User: Fold this.
Amino acid sequence: MMRWSVATAVGLALVVGMGVLALPPCPPPTVEAQVVRVIDGDTIVVRILAIPPELSRVLLLESEVTVRYIGVDAPEVGKPGFEEAKALNRLLVDGRKVYLELDQTPFDKYGRLLAYVYLDSQGYFMVNLALATSPLFRALLYDNTPRYNSCFLQADVDPGTCTLCQECVAAEQAAQHYGEEIWVCGVVASVARLAYNRVFLNFGRPYPDQVFTVMVHERYVAAFDEKFGPRWENRLIGQVVCVYGKVEEYRGKPQILPTRPEQLQAAVLGLPCPAHCPCK
Assistant:
């Protein structure tokens, strides 16, 4: 990974956040707060200045609350990049008035408020998403705060914003990368959809001799069907497909279990694979 200066990272965050990725939410953020202290790259302390009536049981006016940014993860204390990430966060928000948007789950298990943090009341600059474009940070997605998960994934893995941070390997090499979150690309040799709707994509050779497998669990298949159309997997036979996720081992073979359609890219699906991947 290339090591960037704080000034360079700030410049990237400002350009990307204002121009391309940080789109206004609907509706705009509803909580107004003052940043009291920056704890690290993804955590701040704020004083609550204004709240809408529907959040009056969640937050108290003039109270100080620790806020954990949703969707982005910074290096922990003592790890490489910690000081740089904290400095970048401080440059963006320290002492500023900010605007918070909450998701399905207001607090994490540590009692921190989970929020999307904006520098403007209309939501044009989301700090979380701007930080996710920097190589100092990575996207961190949870099902209980799902509103902008696809945006964070795109910010983290899109080759136009972070090509040096994301490795991409051929399906035949996937077994060398167990435990890593990477792109894997190859030709789909066979597919299967079970009676209870679980979908399998077998790469390189048909099942059971495949070199790599993509398995979409039945609880997530509906989202893939909605985005790509009915029986979308049948269109992938003989096509180059790229998938992003953690490489796991199952019965001696590597697999990735995507949970969001954005993790699966193929020209036939209208999502060409990343430019830095072995797609030929």
Notes: The chain has six helices and 15 strands. The CA atoms of residues 4 and 114 lie 28 Å apart.
